[in-house]
Amino acid sequence: MYESLLFLCTGNYYRSRFAEAVFNFHSSAWELPWRASSRGLAVGPAPFPISPFARSRLEELGIPLDHTGPSPLRLLEADLAQAGRVIALQEREHRPMIARLYPQWLDRICFWDIDDVDRMPALLALSKIEKRVLLLLEELAGDPSSGTPREASLQRARAQRTEAPNGLQDVRQTFSLGEAANDP
Questions:
Q1: Which of 1, 85, 117, 137 shows the smallest number of beta carbons within 10 Å?
Q2: What is the mean pLDDT of residues 49-55?
Q3: CA dist list (Å): 173 to 18, 133, 162
Q4: Where are the domains of the chain?
């Protein structure tokens, strides 16, 4: 049985889908008991099942598209009720929408500050999402130096990523944790 994490954005086409795929790929590799899903607060017609920006970056990272859902989905209250944790990807944008649609859930939602493509270049936004997701996974895995039960699988997954033929590198080599912790 897995714990459930829910990523929210506006259209469930770009940011939340990318976060979901990155999270699920690494959570599985690290053998963590967490799986993510994603939903949109204002899902409309989309020209593709997933943003070309997100698709391209996932391909560069060697993350298969099956780590995210097949198409954008609208948020339902049942999704919020089932999630152990909920993260909305842009507070300025999403807090008012959630306050209007599901005000009783506001205090359960963690807000990040990652703008949509109209306010931030896609490469920068996706890089920020990737950093935040990897830091979140580190948090969920627990401190490896504390001797948690997941320590062995976490260390094994890091070693596999360092040696992976798809070009993925260890989280600590790719992103300085100190630098990422100060990066909203």
A1: 1
A2: 95
A3: 21, 15, 9
A4: 3-181
